[in-house]
Every structure is written in structure tokens, then in C-alpha cells.
Design goal:
elongated, mainly alpha, 107 residues
Length: 107
């Protein structure tokens, strides 16, 4: 039963990581791509680490998995903030839905 739960967690984590990759490829600007990479990527990695910790159930491995998730939760928002801040300083404007429908902008 524990192996099934670990497999489900790893599968869900992998699915979330794939969704994050698709988001990075498909979203229109750096800010929304950054959101997909940090939020969903961290969730996917956390689920994979939870599955690994559940599968192995060794205290040393569980500690490592917890530390990996802690490090991801600590560094992902900081990295996203720095990327967003650098993008704004370079003059990249955030995407808005009006950019796709405004005929003046497309000319």
C-alpha cells in the first residue's frame, strides 16, 4: 500500500513538472513563464520528494527529501523575484490580454 501511495505521489509530481514545462513553453511573457516554472515546478518536485521519502522510509533519506523541499521553497520565490525584477529593469512590459486584440499594437 505504501508503494502505491509513493508511486501516485511520484506520478503526480512528474505530471506537475510536465505541466510546468508546457507552461514555460506556451505562456506569452517572462512573468507568466516565471510563475509556471516556480509554482508548479516546486509543487512537482515536492511531490516527487514526498514519494521518494515515503518509498524509502529511511530517516536519513527522509531528512534529505525534507531538506530538498525546504531549499526549493526557500530559493524558488527569491529566484523568481530576481528574474522579475531584472526583467522590469530591462524594460520588459508585462503581457496583457489587450495586446492580442488591439489592432493598433499589431501594426
Amino acid at each position: 500500500m505504501i508503494d502505491l501511495a509513493a508511486a501516485v505521489l511520484v506520478f503526480l509530481g512528474a505530471a506537475m513538472t510536465v505541466v510546468a514545462g508546457i507552461g514555460v513553453l506556451r505562456l506569452p511573457d517572462v512573468f507568466t513563464r516565471m510563475h509556471a516554472a516556480t509554482k508548479v515546478g516546486t509543487l512537482g518536485s515536492g511531490l516527487i520528494m514526498a514519494g521518494a521519502a515515503l518509498h524509502f522510509a529511511d530517516p536519513a533519506i527522509v531528512l534529505r527529501c525534507v531538506l530538498v523541499v525546504f531549499f526549493l521553497l526557500l530559493t524558488a520565490p527569491i529566484g523568481a523575484h530576481m528574474v522579475g525584477r531584472a526583467s522590469l529593469r530591462l524594460g520588459i512590459t508585462p503581457w496583457s490580454p489587450q495586446q492580442d486584440t488591439d489592432p493598433q499594437k499589431n501594426e
